[in-house]
TrEMBL record:
InterPro entries: DinB, DinB/YfiT-like. The keyword Signal does not apply. Belongs to the DinB family. Keywords: Metal-binding. A divalent metal cation binds at H47, H128, H132. One of its GO terms (molecular function) is metal ion binding. This is Uncharacterized damage-inducible protein DinB (Forms a four-helix bundle). It comes from Flavobacterium caeni. Coiled coil: none annotated.
Length: 154
């Protein structure tokens, strides 16, 4: 399993999304919309970064949670910096598990404890990001922007 090649595709798609988000006004970047569970573009981006922290940083790499507080970000440049930090530990994950994608890893979600694998944790994190990427694009449409194509194949 070549986690790094797959993550490079995710990063390419994310860069397109973040570049698009840089065209939003700061007010729109922070604007909460009641139809979206996580509220704003900023909140959705932070949630995505924190999802990587939880599943990859905390579970796969056995680090301690170091979540980003959404209120600490006020513009897209700060969100880009958060994803730069995510990239550091995801690259470490890719290297560590490249030859053992089915290793058994302890994991938890709330009170539930279970065994997982690197491929399961990685797949969960990247599909979670793409789910919320779609929400971000829908939210920006509600704010009056014309969403762009952020698919991997575009």
């Amino acid at each position: 399993m070549d986690f790094q090649k797959q993550y490079d595709l995710v990063r390419s798609s994310r860069k397109v999304l973040l570049d698009y988000c840089a065209t939003l006004t700061d007010a729109d970047f922070l604007a909460a919309h009641p139809a979206f569970g996580r509220g704003s573009v900023r909140d959705l981006l932070v949630h995505n970064a924190n999802t990587y922290q939880w599943w990859i940083g905390t579970h796969a790499l056995q680090g301690r949670p170091d979540f980003t507080d959404k209120d600490s970000l006020t513009d897209i440049a700060q969100a880009v910096s958060v994803f730069d930090q995510v990239d550091v530990f995801v690259v470490e994950f890719c290297e560590r598990f490249k030859d053992d994608p089915t290793a058994t890893l302890p994991a938890s979600l709330g009170e539930k404890k279970f065994l997982s694998t690197p491929i399961e944790l990685f797949t969960h994190a990247i599909t979670h990001e793409f789910h919320h990427k779609g929400q971000i694009l829908s939210l920006t449409r509600q704010l009056g922007y014309v969403p762009i194509d952020t698919d991997i194949i575009r």
